[in-house]
Design brief:
Blueprint: E1 17-22, H1 29-37, E2 55-61, E3 64-70, H2 85-98, E4 101-107, H3 114-126, E5 130-135, H4 140-144, E6 158-159, H5 168-176, E7 190-195, H6 202-211, E8 216-221, E9 228-234, E10 237-242, H7 254-271, E11 274-280, H8 287-299, E12 302-308, H9 319-330, E13 339-341, H10 353-364, H11 370-383, E14 396-403, E15 408-413, H12 421-435, E16 443-448
Parallel strand pairs: 1-3, 1-4, 4-5, 5-6, 7-10, 7-11, 11-12, 12-13, 15-16
Antiparallel strand pairs: 2-3, 8-9, 9-10, 14-15
Helix pairs in contact: 2-7, 7-8
Protein backbone atom coordinates (compact mmCIF):
# COMPACT_ATOMS: atom_id res chain seq x y z
CA UNK A 1 0.00 0.00 0.00
CA UNK A 2 1.42 3.41 -0.96
CA UNK A 3 0.95 6.57 1.07
CA UNK A 4 1.39 10.06 -0.32
CA UNK A 5 2.77 12.86 1.85
CA UNK A 6 3.12 16.52 0.94
CA UNK A 7 5.13 19.33 2.44
CA UNK A 8 4.02 22.91 3.13
CA UNK A 9 4.88 25.26 0.30
CA UNK A 10 6.37 28.72 0.66
CA UNK A 11 3.87 31.14 2.16
CA UNK A 12 1.86 28.50 4.03
CA UNK A 13 1.36 28.83 7.76
CA UNK A 14 4.03 27.06 9.77
CA UNK A 15 1.97 26.90 12.96
CA UNK A 16 2.36 23.14 13.28
CA UNK A 17 1.54 20.46 15.79
CA UNK A 18 4.53 18.42 16.91
CA UNK A 19 4.56 14.59 17.00
CA UNK A 20 7.49 12.81 18.69
CA UNK A 21 8.44 9.17 18.09
CA UNK A 22 9.95 7.78 21.28
CA UNK A 23 10.81 4.40 22.76
CA UNK A 24 13.70 2.31 23.96
CA UNK A 25 16.56 1.59 21.51
CA UNK A 26 16.06 -0.59 18.44
CA UNK A 27 12.26 -0.76 18.28
CA UNK A 28 12.11 0.77 14.77
CA UNK A 29 11.64 4.48 15.47
CA UNK A 30 13.81 5.66 12.57
CA UNK A 31 12.20 3.15 10.20
CA UNK A 32 8.78 4.59 11.06
CA UNK A 33 10.11 8.14 10.69
CA UNK A 34 11.45 7.35 7.23
CA UNK A 35 8.21 5.58 6.27
CA UNK A 36 6.12 8.62 7.21
CA UNK A 37 8.24 11.33 5.61
CA UNK A 38 8.83 9.23 2.52
CA UNK A 39 12.62 9.38 2.34
CA UNK A 40 15.56 7.73 4.06
CA UNK A 41 16.58 10.62 6.29
CA UNK A 42 17.29 8.82 9.58
CA UNK A 43 20.01 6.21 9.77
CA UNK A 44 18.47 2.76 10.17
CA UNK A 45 20.62 -0.03 11.56
CA UNK A 46 20.14 -3.18 13.56
CA UNK A 47 22.59 -1.90 16.16
CA UNK A 48 20.74 -0.18 19.02
CA UNK A 49 21.41 3.51 19.57
CA UNK A 50 22.35 4.51 16.03
CA UNK A 51 20.10 7.60 16.13
CA UNK A 52 22.13 9.92 18.34
CA UNK A 53 20.42 13.25 17.73
CA UNK A 54 16.87 14.34 17.21
CA UNK A 55 15.79 14.74 13.60
CA UNK A 56 12.77 16.83 12.60
CA UNK A 57 10.83 17.01 9.35
CA UNK A 58 7.56 18.64 8.34
CA UNK A 59 5.04 16.31 6.75
CA UNK A 60 1.30 16.02 6.19
CA UNK A 61 -1.49 13.50 6.64
CA UNK A 62 -5.07 13.95 5.42
CA UNK A 63 -4.67 17.72 5.22
CA UNK A 64 -3.04 18.04 8.63
CA UNK A 65 0.56 19.31 8.49
CA UNK A 66 2.73 18.50 11.46
CA UNK A 67 6.35 18.34 12.53
CA UNK A 68 7.62 14.82 13.11
CA UNK A 69 10.51 14.21 15.52
CA UNK A 70 12.71 11.13 15.46
CA UNK A 71 14.71 10.53 18.62
CA UNK A 72 17.33 8.18 19.95
CA UNK A 73 16.34 5.42 22.33
CA UNK A 74 15.42 6.20 25.92
CA UNK A 75 17.44 4.22 28.44
CA UNK A 76 15.70 4.17 31.83
CA UNK A 77 17.22 3.51 35.22
CA UNK A 78 20.34 5.49 34.32
CA UNK A 79 21.88 2.45 32.65
CA UNK A 80 24.54 3.20 30.06
CA UNK A 81 25.61 1.11 27.10
CA UNK A 82 27.40 3.85 25.17
CA UNK A 83 29.25 7.12 25.69
CA UNK A 84 26.30 9.27 24.60
CA UNK A 85 23.40 7.40 26.21
CA UNK A 86 22.73 10.13 28.79
CA UNK A 87 22.66 12.85 26.14
CA UNK A 88 20.45 10.85 23.77
CA UNK A 89 17.99 10.03 26.55
CA UNK A 90 17.87 13.67 27.63
CA UNK A 91 17.10 14.79 24.07
CA UNK A 92 14.32 12.22 23.77
CA UNK A 93 12.78 13.34 27.07
CA UNK A 94 12.91 16.97 25.94
CA UNK A 95 11.12 15.90 22.76
CA UNK A 96 8.31 14.47 24.87
CA UNK A 97 7.92 17.81 26.64
CA UNK A 98 7.82 19.64 23.32
CA UNK A 99 5.40 17.26 21.59
CA UNK A 100 1.64 17.66 21.24
CA UNK A 101 1.29 13.93 20.57
CA UNK A 102 3.70 11.12 21.47
CA UNK A 103 4.09 7.97 19.37
CA UNK A 104 5.39 5.44 21.89
CA UNK A 105 6.93 2.52 20.01
CA UNK A 106 7.27 -1.01 21.36
CA UNK A 107 8.38 -4.27 19.76
CA UNK A 108 5.85 -7.10 19.30
CA UNK A 109 8.65 -9.58 18.66
CA UNK A 110 9.73 -9.45 22.30
CA UNK A 111 6.61 -8.17 24.08
CA UNK A 112 6.56 -5.62 26.93
CA UNK A 113 9.94 -5.19 28.60
CA UNK A 114 10.98 -3.51 31.85
CA UNK A 115 12.30 -0.50 29.93
CA UNK A 116 8.94 -0.16 28.13
CA UNK A 117 7.13 -0.21 31.47
CA UNK A 118 9.43 2.47 32.88
CA UNK A 119 8.91 4.75 29.88
CA UNK A 120 5.15 4.14 30.02
CA UNK A 121 5.05 5.23 33.68
CA UNK A 122 6.80 8.48 32.80
CA UNK A 123 4.44 9.09 29.86
CA UNK A 124 1.35 8.61 32.03
CA UNK A 125 2.66 11.30 34.39
CA UNK A 126 2.95 13.86 31.57
CA UNK A 127 -0.75 13.75 30.69
CA UNK A 128 0.20 13.96 27.00
CA UNK A 129 -1.84 12.20 24.31
CA UNK A 130 0.05 8.95 23.65
CA UNK A 131 -0.51 6.64 20.70
CA UNK A 132 0.87 3.22 21.65
CA UNK A 133 2.56 1.90 18.52
CA UNK A 134 3.37 -1.83 18.43
CA UNK A 135 5.91 -2.31 15.65
CA UNK A 136 7.11 -5.38 13.73
CA UNK A 137 3.65 -6.89 13.24
CA UNK A 138 4.51 -9.07 10.24
CA UNK A 139 2.93 -12.44 11.09
CA UNK A 140 -0.24 -13.69 12.76
CA UNK A 141 1.83 -14.64 15.80
CA UNK A 142 2.92 -11.00 16.13
CA UNK A 143 -0.71 -9.83 16.15
CA UNK A 144 -1.45 -12.29 18.92
CA UNK A 145 1.00 -10.51 21.23
CA UNK A 146 -0.69 -7.10 20.85
CA UNK A 147 -2.97 -7.68 23.85
CA UNK A 148 0.07 -7.99 26.11
CA UNK A 149 0.78 -4.28 25.69
CA UNK A 150 -2.47 -3.25 27.41
CA UNK A 151 -0.47 -3.83 30.61
CA UNK A 152 1.40 -0.58 29.91
CA UNK A 153 -1.74 1.40 30.76
CA UNK A 154 -1.68 3.53 27.62
CA UNK A 155 -4.78 2.24 25.89
CA UNK A 156 -5.12 0.25 22.70
CA UNK A 157 -1.88 -0.82 21.01
CA UNK A 158 -1.85 -0.03 17.29
CA UNK A 159 -0.14 -2.83 15.39
CA UNK A 160 2.07 -1.74 12.49
CA UNK A 161 5.03 -2.79 10.41
CA UNK A 162 7.18 0.26 9.81
CA UNK A 163 9.38 -1.79 7.49
CA UNK A 164 6.57 -2.98 5.21
CA UNK A 165 4.05 -0.13 5.67
CA UNK A 166 1.32 -2.22 7.32
CA UNK A 167 -1.07 -0.19 9.49
CA UNK A 168 0.61 3.19 8.93
CA UNK A 169 -2.52 4.87 7.55
CA UNK A 170 -4.67 3.83 10.52
CA UNK A 171 -1.91 4.93 12.88
CA UNK A 172 -1.71 8.40 11.35
CA UNK A 173 -5.50 8.72 11.42
CA UNK A 174 -5.26 8.20 15.17
CA UNK A 175 -2.43 10.74 15.48
CA UNK A 176 -4.20 13.60 13.67
CA UNK A 177 -7.78 12.98 14.78
CA UNK A 178 -7.50 15.61 17.51
CA UNK A 179 -5.84 18.20 15.28
CA UNK A 180 -7.91 21.20 14.15
CA UNK A 181 -9.03 21.06 10.54
CA UNK A 182 -7.10 24.22 9.73
CA UNK A 183 -4.56 26.31 11.58
CA UNK A 184 -5.67 29.93 11.73
CA UNK A 185 -2.93 32.44 12.27
CA UNK A 186 -3.57 36.12 12.91
CA UNK A 187 -2.18 38.26 10.09
CA UNK A 188 0.86 40.45 10.60
CA UNK A 189 2.96 42.68 8.37
CA UNK A 190 6.38 41.19 9.15
CA UNK A 191 7.77 38.31 11.21
CA UNK A 192 11.11 38.90 12.91
CA UNK A 193 13.34 36.30 14.57
CA UNK A 194 16.12 37.35 16.92
CA UNK A 195 18.84 34.74 16.41
CA UNK A 196 22.26 34.12 17.86
CA UNK A 197 24.30 31.81 20.01
CA UNK A 198 23.54 31.58 23.74
CA UNK A 199 24.13 34.62 25.97
CA UNK A 200 24.51 37.24 23.25
CA UNK A 201 21.57 39.29 24.56
CA UNK A 202 18.57 38.00 22.61
CA UNK A 203 16.25 38.07 25.61
CA UNK A 204 17.40 41.54 26.61
CA UNK A 205 16.79 42.92 23.14
CA UNK A 206 13.38 41.29 22.93
CA UNK A 207 12.40 42.84 26.26
CA UNK A 208 13.59 46.26 25.13
CA UNK A 209 11.61 46.09 21.89
CA UNK A 210 8.45 44.94 23.65
CA UNK A 211 8.87 47.20 26.68
CA UNK A 212 9.36 50.39 24.71
CA UNK A 213 6.17 49.83 22.66
CA UNK A 214 3.06 51.44 24.10
CA UNK A 215 0.76 49.61 21.65
CA UNK A 216 1.44 46.00 22.61
CA UNK A 217 -1.17 44.02 20.70
CA UNK A 218 -1.14 40.51 22.08
CA UNK A 219 0.82 37.49 23.22
CA UNK A 220 0.38 34.88 20.49
CA UNK A 221 1.08 31.34 21.72
CA UNK A 222 3.53 29.53 19.48
CA UNK A 223 3.31 25.97 18.30
CA UNK A 224 5.25 24.72 21.33
CA UNK A 225 4.72 25.63 24.95
CA UNK A 226 8.21 27.12 25.26
CA UNK A 227 7.76 29.60 22.41
CA UNK A 228 5.79 32.84 22.60
CA UNK A 229 5.36 35.15 19.66
CA UNK A 230 4.81 38.81 20.55
CA UNK A 231 2.87 41.16 18.28
CA UNK A 232 3.59 44.87 18.57
CA UNK A 233 2.60 47.97 16.65
CA UNK A 234 5.24 50.05 14.93
CA UNK A 235 4.19 53.04 12.80
CA UNK A 236 0.84 51.41 12.12
CA UNK A 237 2.42 48.08 11.15
CA UNK A 238 2.01 44.81 13.10
CA UNK A 239 5.43 43.28 13.72
CA UNK A 240 5.57 39.73 15.09
CA UNK A 241 8.66 38.98 17.18
CA UNK A 242 9.50 35.29 17.32
CA UNK A 243 10.97 34.46 20.70
CA UNK A 244 14.12 32.37 20.42
CA UNK A 245 15.46 33.33 23.83
CA UNK A 246 16.54 29.75 24.47
CA UNK A 247 15.69 26.96 26.85
CA UNK A 248 13.36 27.75 29.73
CA UNK A 249 15.28 25.46 32.03
CA UNK A 250 18.78 24.11 32.34
CA UNK A 251 19.62 20.74 30.86
CA UNK A 252 21.72 18.17 32.64
CA UNK A 253 23.57 17.43 29.43
CA UNK A 254 25.39 20.06 27.38
CA UNK A 255 24.88 18.16 24.13
CA UNK A 256 21.11 18.28 24.62
CA UNK A 257 21.22 22.03 25.12
CA UNK A 258 23.20 22.56 21.93
CA UNK A 259 20.93 20.38 19.82
CA UNK A 260 17.73 21.94 21.12
CA UNK A 261 19.09 25.46 20.67
CA UNK A 262 19.76 24.61 17.03
CA UNK A 263 16.26 23.18 16.58
CA UNK A 264 14.66 26.32 17.97
CA UNK A 265 16.85 28.43 15.69
CA UNK A 266 15.73 26.42 12.66
CA UNK A 267 12.06 26.66 13.62
CA UNK A 268 12.26 30.43 14.13
CA UNK A 269 14.15 30.82 10.87
CA UNK A 270 11.48 28.90 8.95
CA UNK A 271 8.78 31.24 10.23
CA UNK A 272 10.44 34.65 9.93
CA UNK A 273 10.71 37.20 7.14
CA UNK A 274 13.69 39.01 8.64
CA UNK A 275 16.34 37.60 10.98
CA UNK A 276 18.21 39.79 13.43
CA UNK A 277 21.57 38.06 13.94
CA UNK A 278 23.07 39.10 17.26
CA UNK A 279 26.83 38.83 17.78
CA UNK A 280 28.70 39.37 21.03
CA UNK A 281 30.98 42.27 20.12
CA UNK A 282 33.08 41.78 23.25
CA UNK A 283 33.90 38.19 22.24
CA UNK A 284 34.13 38.70 18.48
CA UNK A 285 32.74 36.49 15.73
CA UNK A 286 33.01 32.75 16.37
CA UNK A 287 32.22 29.62 14.38
CA UNK A 288 28.72 29.29 15.85
CA UNK A 289 27.88 32.78 14.57
CA UNK A 290 29.03 31.69 11.12
CA UNK A 291 26.85 28.56 11.23
CA UNK A 292 23.72 30.55 12.08
CA UNK A 293 24.61 33.11 9.40
CA UNK A 294 24.91 30.30 6.87
CA UNK A 295 21.42 29.06 7.76
CA UNK A 296 19.98 32.54 7.28
CA UNK A 297 21.72 32.94 3.92
CA UNK A 298 20.68 29.50 2.67
CA UNK A 299 17.06 30.19 3.64
CA UNK A 300 17.05 33.46 1.70
CA UNK A 301 15.74 35.43 4.67
CA UNK A 302 16.25 39.13 5.20
CA UNK A 303 19.03 39.77 7.69
CA UNK A 304 20.44 42.46 9.97
CA UNK A 305 23.62 42.01 12.00
CA UNK A 306 23.70 43.56 15.49
CA UNK A 307 26.96 43.70 17.42
CA UNK A 308 25.71 43.72 21.00
CA UNK A 309 27.61 44.50 24.22
CA UNK A 310 29.33 47.43 22.55
CA UNK A 311 29.63 49.05 25.96
CA UNK A 312 32.17 46.35 26.88
CA UNK A 313 34.42 46.95 23.86
CA UNK A 314 37.52 49.13 24.15
CA UNK A 315 37.21 51.93 21.60
CA UNK A 316 39.88 53.16 19.21
CA UNK A 317 39.67 54.91 15.85
CA UNK A 318 37.34 52.94 13.54
CA UNK A 319 36.85 50.12 16.04
CA UNK A 320 33.38 49.53 14.63
CA UNK A 321 34.75 49.13 11.11
CA UNK A 322 37.31 46.61 12.37
CA UNK A 323 34.48 44.67 14.02
CA UNK A 324 32.62 44.47 10.70
CA UNK A 325 35.77 43.53 8.74
CA UNK A 326 36.47 40.68 11.14
CA UNK A 327 32.86 39.52 10.82
CA UNK A 328 33.01 39.56 7.01
CA UNK A 329 36.23 37.55 7.11
CA UNK A 330 34.55 34.84 9.21
CA UNK A 331 31.12 35.14 7.55
CA UNK A 332 31.73 36.09 3.90
CA UNK A 333 28.22 35.07 2.80
CA UNK A 334 26.54 37.95 4.68
CA UNK A 335 28.53 40.92 3.44
CA UNK A 336 25.26 42.33 2.00
CA UNK A 337 23.68 42.65 5.45
CA UNK A 338 23.17 46.06 7.07
CA UNK A 339 24.86 46.19 10.47
CA UNK A 340 25.35 48.37 13.51
CA UNK A 341 26.74 48.27 17.03
CA UNK A 342 24.48 48.46 20.07
CA UNK A 343 24.18 47.76 23.76
CA UNK A 344 21.11 46.08 25.17
CA UNK A 345 22.46 46.93 28.63
CA UNK A 346 22.55 50.72 28.06
CA UNK A 347 19.94 50.67 25.23
CA UNK A 348 22.46 52.43 22.97
CA UNK A 349 21.24 52.48 19.35
CA UNK A 350 18.53 49.85 19.99
CA UNK A 351 16.01 52.25 18.42
CA UNK A 352 17.49 51.60 14.97
CA UNK A 353 16.42 47.99 14.80
CA UNK A 354 12.79 48.33 13.76
CA UNK A 355 13.64 50.88 11.06
CA UNK A 356 16.21 48.52 9.58
CA UNK A 357 13.87 45.55 9.88
CA UNK A 358 11.22 47.30 7.83
CA UNK A 359 13.77 48.53 5.27
CA UNK A 360 15.00 44.98 4.73
CA UNK A 361 11.45 43.59 4.66
CA UNK A 362 10.48 46.06 1.93
CA UNK A 363 13.65 45.26 -0.03
CA UNK A 364 12.83 41.54 -0.02
CA UNK A 365 9.45 42.30 -1.57
CA UNK A 366 10.78 44.66 -4.25
CA UNK A 367 9.88 43.74 -7.82
CA UNK A 368 11.72 45.07 -10.87
CA UNK A 369 9.75 45.20 -14.13
CA UNK A 370 11.00 43.02 -16.97
CA UNK A 371 11.68 45.98 -19.26
CA UNK A 372 13.69 47.81 -16.59
CA UNK A 373 15.59 44.64 -15.73
CA UNK A 374 16.56 44.00 -19.34
CA UNK A 375 17.71 47.60 -19.82
CA UNK A 376 19.98 47.09 -16.81
CA UNK A 377 21.17 43.72 -18.12
CA UNK A 378 22.13 45.19 -21.47
CA UNK A 379 24.39 47.70 -19.73
CA UNK A 380 25.91 45.10 -17.41
CA UNK A 381 26.76 42.78 -20.33
CA UNK A 382 28.16 45.66 -22.37
CA UNK A 383 30.47 46.56 -19.45
CA UNK A 384 31.60 42.95 -18.91
CA UNK A 385 30.69 40.17 -21.31
CA UNK A 386 30.69 36.47 -20.40
CA UNK A 387 33.94 34.66 -21.04
CA UNK A 388 34.30 31.23 -22.59
CA UNK A 389 33.55 28.57 -19.99
CA UNK A 390 32.55 24.92 -19.93
CA UNK A 391 33.25 24.39 -23.59
CA UNK A 392 31.39 27.39 -25.00
CA UNK A 393 30.51 31.08 -24.80
CA UNK A 394 27.42 31.98 -22.82
CA UNK A 395 24.73 34.22 -24.28
CA UNK A 396 21.92 35.87 -22.31
CA UNK A 397 18.70 36.51 -24.23
CA UNK A 398 16.57 38.19 -21.56
CA UNK A 399 15.89 38.32 -17.83
CA UNK A 400 12.81 38.40 -15.64
CA UNK A 401 12.18 38.52 -11.91
CA UNK A 402 10.32 35.31 -11.17
CA UNK A 403 9.80 35.75 -7.41
CA UNK A 404 10.09 38.14 -4.51
CA UNK A 405 10.91 37.48 -0.85
CA UNK A 406 13.62 36.55 -1.63
CA UNK A 407 14.15 38.14 -5.07
CA UNK A 408 14.83 35.56 -7.76
CA UNK A 409 16.09 36.63 -11.19
CA UNK A 410 15.84 34.11 -14.04
CA UNK A 411 18.16 34.51 -17.03
CA UNK A 412 17.18 32.87 -20.30
CA UNK A 413 20.48 31.64 -21.80
CA UNK A 414 21.81 29.47 -24.59
CA UNK A 415 23.49 26.97 -22.25
CA UNK A 416 23.73 27.25 -18.41
CA UNK A 417 27.07 25.39 -18.20
CA UNK A 418 28.74 28.10 -20.30
CA UNK A 419 28.49 30.57 -17.38
CA UNK A 420 31.20 30.63 -14.72
CA UNK A 421 30.27 31.22 -11.10
CA UNK A 422 32.39 34.38 -11.10
CA UNK A 423 30.26 35.92 -13.85
CA UNK A 424 27.05 35.16 -12.01
CA UNK A 425 28.58 36.77 -8.93
CA UNK A 426 29.36 39.84 -11.04
CA UNK A 427 25.73 40.08 -12.19
CA UNK A 428 24.54 39.58 -8.61
CA UNK A 429 26.74 42.43 -7.40
CA UNK A 430 25.55 44.70 -10.21
CA UNK A 431 21.92 43.92 -9.40
CA UNK A 432 22.48 44.87 -5.77
CA UNK A 433 24.33 48.03 -6.76
CA UNK A 434 21.51 49.07 -9.10
CA UNK A 435 18.41 48.07 -7.12
CA UNK A 436 19.55 47.82 -3.52
CA UNK A 437 17.79 44.71 -2.22
CA UNK A 438 19.10 45.73 1.20
CA UNK A 439 19.81 42.84 3.54
CA UNK A 440 18.44 40.09 1.32
CA UNK A 441 20.06 37.44 -0.80
CA UNK A 442 19.51 37.70 -4.56
CA UNK A 443 19.05 34.40 -6.37
CA UNK A 444 20.25 34.43 -9.99
CA UNK A 445 19.08 31.34 -11.86
CA UNK A 446 19.82 30.16 -15.39
CA UNK A 447 17.21 28.67 -17.71
CA UNK A 448 18.03 27.22 -21.10
CA UNK A 449 16.22 29.10 -23.83
Amino acid sequence: MAFLFSFPQAGESLALRTVAIIGRPNVGKSTLFNRIIGERRSVVHETAGVTRDRIAETTDWAGHPFQLLDTGGIIPFGETTGDFDAAVTEIARNSIEEADVVLFMVDTKVGPMAWDESIARDLRKTGKPVVLTANKVEKDADRATLSEFYSLGLGEPHGISALHGYGIGDLLDEVVKGFPAQEIEQPCDCKVAILGRPNVGKSSLLNILVGRQEALVSEVPGTTRDSVHTDLKWHGKTIRLIDTAGLKRKSRVKEAVAIFSNMRTLRALEQCDVAVLMVDASAGTVSQDAKIAGLIHDAGKGVIVCFNKWDLVGKETNTHLKQWEDFCHEVPMLTYAPWFTMSAETKQRTGRIMELVWEVHEARRKRVTTSTLNDFLEGAIHYQQPRSHGGGLGKIYYATQAETAPPSIVLSVNEPRFFAREYLRYLNNQLRKEYGFTGTRIFVKLKKH
